[in-house]
Amino acid sequence: MGFCEVHEGCGHTIPETGFAVRAGRIADFFSHHTDAQSVATSEFGGRVCRGEMIFSISVRSTATEINLLAFSFGHDPLRFVRPAIANPTRTCVAAARAQDDPGPPQSGKRYETVEGDNPWGALLLARDHIHNV
Question: Which of 11, 30, 80, 109 could be cross-linked to 89 through a Cys-Cys bond (beta carbons 3.0 to 4.6 Å apart)?
Fold first, then answer.
């Protein structure tokens, strides 16, 4: 992806079984993550995805190629705007917004803004991904 280009990542649906598997891996059995009946009538309307789960899905959905010459400096800032619920498909849009580059045109740090949303267009996650290119 070049500077100022926008890329829409692939969609990803988190199935109900994904919650049970993740809860077992990290020992997070709080009811808002695991008990579908108790949260069905709550303000959330369903089981809430963990932030790290949504974050990892957003990273994967925007990765389309392996670039052995580039690496990630990390994600800063990372904001979870609203809870994500099980089953609806999430999509991410990445836009390269800046590049600090005192050298050649294709080198330096590139800042990519990534936003993840649900099928109704509600923003769930916003982050900046900092790449070394």
Answer: 11
Helix (H, G, I), strand (E, B) or coil at 18: helix
Measure the CA–CA gap between 10 and 47, rounded to whole angstroms. 23
Alpha-carbon distance 38 to 13, whole Å? 22
Rg (CA), the chain: 17
Neighbour tally for 8: CB within 10 Å: 12
Domains of the chain: 6-14+50-132 (3.10.129.10)
**Euclidean distance between CA atoms 50 and 32, whole angstroms:** 10
The pTM assigned to this predicted structure is 0.68
Beta bridge partners of 90: 12
Residues in the chain with pLDDT values less than 50? 1-3
**Both ends of the chain: CA-CA distance in Å?**
11
